[in-house]
């Protein structure tokens, strides 16, 4: 009987040691889980920050596209007006050349008449 009690006592010690190891393993796993949860929270915060930044960049891009469209419209208007002015300048230059030619002809006529 003493031997059985001694064996049972040994078995109880083995089981206690095993239970203690399992408790330590569980504690280690719980700490690892806590660290993973903290890392996950950091990553979620970073993801949210990046999502917010993306939304801000998309808004800025849309604003720039609107500005670009307006600028291109103004530029097209300016180019059209410049083309009109260029055409008018060419017409005026042709008219000036014509008038200079007429003036030279009249000067020549006047010179002939004076002689």
Automatic annotation (TrEMBL):
UniProt entry keywords in alphabetical sequence: Coiled coil
Coiled-coil boundaries: 12-63
Highest rank taxon of the organism: Eukaryota
Keyword Coiled coil attached: yes
Protein name: Uncharacterized protein
Origin species: Zizania palustris
């Amino acid at each position: 009987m003493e031997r059985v009690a001694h064996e049972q006592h040994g078995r109880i010690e083995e089981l206690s040691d095993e239970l203690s190891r399992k408790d330590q393993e569980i504690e280690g796993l719980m700490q690892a889980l806590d660290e993973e949860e903290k890392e996950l929270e950091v990553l979620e915060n970073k993801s949210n920050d990046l999502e917010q930044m993306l939304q801000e960049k998309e808004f800025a891009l849309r604003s720039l596209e609107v500005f670009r469209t307006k600028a291109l419209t103004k530029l097209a208007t300016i180019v059209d007006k410049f083309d009109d002015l260029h055409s008018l300048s060419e017409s005026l230059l042709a008219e000036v050349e014509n008038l200079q030619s007429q003036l030279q002809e009249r000067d020549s006529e006047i010179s002939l008449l004076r002689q």
